[in-house]
Amino acid sequence: MNIVIFGAPGSGKGTQSERLIDRYGLHHISTGELLRDHIARGTRLGKIADTYISQGQLIPDQLMLEVLGEIFKEQPETAARGVIFDGFPRTIAQAEALEKMLKGYGTEVHAVIGLEVDEDELVRRMLERGKASGRSDDNIDTIRRRLDVYHSQTAPLRDFYRAKGTYHPIDGNGELERIAGDIASCLDNFKDN
Ligand code: ATP
Ligand code: MG
């Protein structure tokens, strides 16, 4: 089973992904974490990524797709085992490329979990996280830009996946355990069918 965990910045994709890995034994691919790791190590990719991330912009599609392609080439077994994609795809072009890539491994995106969270709650969470995370993008100006980018470039993916019948909206406001429970029931339901 390949799952995309989808939502605005601060919607809790990373947090909920951690639980899904434990529950379903999926391989976690978080493009945000991957890029932050490159930044911390000062790699060539990290230096490029840093300029975009600290501005609240997306990394260009072509670069993002190269990075993802590398992961699959290095560990082809991950595709077979089932992946939870966290923070990817973020554009229609990325979604189309993902579809093509998974098709090459004889598989597809089975379910998209859309964490739907009110905008003021998103801002509150990211400001709170910024106090401890040291992330260059968790400050109010960059948060606003990330939300704009989300609405213009990423949110259209909801319709993209709705049209395929794979989009499952989940209320991402409120208590962590309740949200985790809702996601689990959605996926368990899905597995039985
Ligand atoms: P959440 O809090 O829900 O886990 P987030 O949006 O705060 O999500 P990440 O998913 O970690 O955080 O992304 C951080 C930044 O990394 C993005 O704002 C963007 O600049 C870059 N990035 C991550 N994934 C992609 C992608 N698929 N395409 C382009 N840029 C990306
Ligand atoms: Mg994240």
What can you tell me about this protein's structure?
The structure is a single chain. The protein is of the alpha/beta class and 193 residues long. Helices cover 63% and strands 12% of the residues. It contains 10 helices and 5 strands; from the N terminus they run E-H-E-H-H-H-H-E-H-E-H-H-H-E-H. The chain has a 5-stranded parallel beta sheet with strand order 2-3-1-4-5. Helix 2 packs across helix 3, helix 4 packs parallel to helix 6 and helix 7 packs across helix 8. The chain is globular. The model has no long low-confidence stretch (mean pLDDT 94). It binds adenosine-5'-triphosphate and magnesium ion. Magnesium ion (MG) binds next to helix 1.
The biggest beta sheet reads: 5 strands, parallel
Count of helices? 10
Number of beta-strand segments: 5
Large-scale geometry: globular
Gap between N and C termini: 13 Å
Q: Uncertain regions: pLDDT < 50 for 5+ in a row?
A: none
Order of helices and strands: EHEHHHHEHEHHHEH
Q: What structural category characterises the helix and strand content?
A: alpha/beta
Helical residue percent band? 55-70%
Neighbour order of strands in the largest sheet: 2-3-1-4-5
Mean pLDDT: 94
Estimated share of beta-strand residues = 5-15%
Secondary structure layout:
Blueprint: E1 3-7, H1 13-24, E2 27-30, H2 31-41, H3 44-53, H4 61-74, H5 77-81, E3 83-86, H6 92-104, E4 111-116, H7 119-133, H8 140-154, H9 156-164, E5 167-171, H10 176-192
Parallel strand pairs: 1-3, 1-4, 2-3, 4-5
Salient structural properties:
alpha/beta, five-stranded parallel sheet, 193 residues, single chain, binds adenosine-5'-triphosphate, binds magnesium ion, 10 helices
